[in-house]
């Protein structure tokens, strides 16, 4: 895995006036697949336009918005296309744990971004900093999972001897529920995008449980309703993926999942505009976007875990 000078899993060239910015969590980042096989990488291959992978593992919608604002401020980014890849757990990531991540709270008629608390951060990360979890995480993927299990067990509020409710109270204002927080974050994103002429598209990622249990219900439909009410173009990947597009021992995509997602995003954006036009000229798709999505998606790859 390689990152560029700003810490993104992409090359240095992609920082120079990218035509597409891909925001999201570990799915966008490409957890579990080799460099060059992530969704943004495949999107570049398909369309011939420059895309920057800004995915950060563990991020939720709030952090995506704050990261975009920071990046645009540094690079004076305007008139750019942004794809926000949202997994169903973003709703939870936006509100938990209290005080550890950026938060949105309501104070009367005001909606406020609240910074994390240093006390909370130091207390919560005291466990992963211990020698045994750190050693396990560096050996292999399997031992990293074991280390994470140990850390999660020891990070239970009762074992840490902390009260996260008191942390929340110190932030001030009223805590919002998952759906309210998601909606306010998206509306703030749209306000920011309008000021910089950014074109926003959301891409919703279903859980692998959708393909294992016909009765499984998650929050994807509620997220779609919120985005529809706001008027945002939205891609739902539910119908273009299947269980084989996810890693067998992990919740993330295999290489076929990343290619299927990139192909669907390419189709969606191409059908909306007819073609991609970049600063360096018109994009040239490297793979046909016609026909069934599954036909051009490899079912396996030697580099896929």
What layout of secondary structure does this protein have?
Layout: E1 20-24, H1 26-29, H2 39-47, E2 51-53, H3 61-75, E3 81-87, H4 90-93, E4 103-107, E5 110-114, H5 118-124, H6 131-139, H7 141-154, H8 157-160, H9 164-171, E6 174-175, H10 178-196, E7 199-205, H11 220-230, E8 234-236, H12 255-273, E9 277-278, E10 281-282
Parallel strand pairs: 1-2, 1-3, 3-7, 7-8
Antiparallel strand pairs: 4-5, 4-6, 9-10
Helix pairs in contact: 2-12, 3-10, 6-7, 10-11
N- to C-terminal distance: 14 Å
Oligomer class: single chain
**CATH architecture field of the largest domain:** 3-Layer(aba) Sandwich
- How many individual β-strands? 10
Average residue pLDDT: 83
Structural class: alpha/beta
Under CATH, the homologous superfamily of the largest domain reads SGNH hydrolase
The CATH class of the largest domain: Alpha Beta
Order of neighbouring strands in the sheet with most strands: 2-1-3-7-8
Counting DSSP H or I runs of 4 or more residues, the number of helices is 12
List the secondary-structure elements in sequence, H or E. Answer: EHHEHEHEEHHHHHEHEHEHEE
Q: Uncertain segments of ≥5 residues (pLDDT<50)?
A: 277-305
Kindly describe this structure.
The chain has about 300 residues and is an alpha/beta fold. The protein has two domains: about 10-95 and about 175-295, Rossmann fold (3-Layer(aba) Sandwich); about 115-175, no CATH class. The protein has twelve helices and ten strands. A five-stranded parallel beta sheet has the order 2-1-3-7-8, sandwiched between helices. α3 (about 60-75) runs parallel beside α10 (about 180-195), α6 packs antiparallel against α7 and α10 (about 180-195) packs parallel to α11 (about 220-230). The longest helix is centred in the middle third of the chain and has 19 residues, at about 180-195. The chain is globular, with a radius of gyration of 20 Å.
């Amino acid at each position: 895995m390689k990152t560029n000078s700003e810490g993104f899993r992409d090359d240095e060239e992609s920082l120079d006036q990218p035509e597409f910015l891909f925001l999201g969590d570990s799915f966008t980042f490409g957890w579990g697949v080799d460099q060059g096989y992530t969704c943004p990488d495949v999107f570049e291959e398909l369309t011939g336009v420059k895309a920057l992978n800004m995915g950060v593992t563990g991020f939720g919608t709030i952090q995506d918005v704050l990261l975009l604002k920071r990046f645009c401020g540094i690079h004076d980014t305007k008139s750019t296309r942004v794809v926000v890849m949202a997994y169903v757990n973003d709703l939870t990531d936006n509100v938990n744990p209290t005080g550890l991540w950026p938060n949105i709270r309501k104070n009367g008629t005001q909606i406020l971004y609240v910074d994390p608390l240093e006390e909370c951060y130091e207390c919560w990360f005291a466990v992963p900093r211990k020698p045994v979890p750190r050693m396990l995480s560096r050996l292999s993927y399997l031992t990293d999972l074991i280390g994470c299990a140990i850390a999660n067990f020891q990070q239970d509020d009762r074992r840490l001897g902390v009260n996260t409710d008191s942390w929340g109270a110190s932030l001030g204002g009223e805590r919002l529920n998952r759906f309210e927080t998601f909606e306010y974050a998206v509306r703030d994103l749209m306000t920011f995008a309008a000021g910089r002429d950014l074109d926003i598209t959301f891409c919703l990622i279903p859980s692998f449980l959708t393909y294992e249990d016909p009765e499984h219900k998650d929050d994807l439909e509620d997220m779609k309703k919120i985005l529809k009410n706001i008027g945002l173009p939205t891609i739902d990947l539910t119908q273009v993926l299947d269980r084989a597009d996810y890693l067998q021992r992990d919740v993330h995509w295999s290489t076929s999942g990343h290619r299927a997602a990139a192909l669907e995003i390419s189709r969606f954006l191409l059908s909306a505009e007819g073609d991609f036009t970049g600063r360096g000229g018109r994009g040239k798709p490297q793979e046909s976007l016609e026909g069934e999505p599954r036909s051009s998606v490899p079912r396996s790859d030697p580099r896929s875990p």
